[in-house]
Structures are given as C-alpha cells and as structure tokens.
Design brief:
Layout: H1 2-7, H2 12-27, H3 36-49, H4 57-64, H5 68-78, H6 82-85
Helix pairs in contact: 2-3, 3-4, 3-5, 4-5
Length: 102
C-alpha cells in the first residue's frame, strides 16, 4: 500500500486512510469475492476522493496494476459502507456524503 500511495504522490494521511479502509473492508467482508489488490485500489481511490489530492480510477489503476473497471466494481461494493471504513481521525476535505457514488 505504501509503495502505491507513494507512487501516486500521496502523503502519510492518505496512505494511512487507504490502509485502514482496505483492512476494514476486508474485515467487514463488504467486497466478497474481490481480490485484495482490487480492494486496496478502491480504498486508495476512496481516500483520495475525500482529500484534496484527488486521483482518477485510471490513475490509481495504472499504478496498482488493475483496470479502472475493477476499481469501480470494488468501490461500488464499498461505497454504502464508507462511514464505517474511514479512520475516526481522518480529516475530510470532501464530506463523506459527497463522495462520488462510482
């Protein structure tokens, strides 16, 4: 996760949030049947969309090595659970209810 976030130019807050989101998504089984890499990519995308350092699904996919459609599928499964996935201390630039739906 740290390598992907670093390659995307993200600092420690987004890296920490993305790791937390991916772990919570796995623990809560909100993306059943999805490989961890696609969940991790969707978590990075979700964290970036809540921050001031937004990246597209394509940008994230190019770095992580998954198709943007794969990120979109995992993200759609994770989106309804977004409030449970973010770390409690995450500083939202975009309110959680204003995150993109896909």
């Amino acid at each position: 996760m740290s390598r992907f976030c670093s390659n995307l130019g993200f600092g420690p807050q987004i890296q920490k949030a993305a790791s937390h989101i991916a772990q919570k998504a796995t623990d809560l089984d909100v993306a059943p049947g999805r490989v961890y890499l696609s969940v991790a990519a969707a978590a990075i995308y979700m964290a970036s969309q809540a921050s001031d350092q937004k990246k597209t699904q394509k940008e994230v996919g190019d770095v992580v090595g998954v198709a943007d459609s794969t990120i979109r599928q995992s993200y759609r499964l994770m989106y309804p659970h977004r409030a449970k996935l973010f770390p409690k201390d995450f500083k939202f630039v975009v309110p959680i209810d204003d995150l993109p739906r896909h």
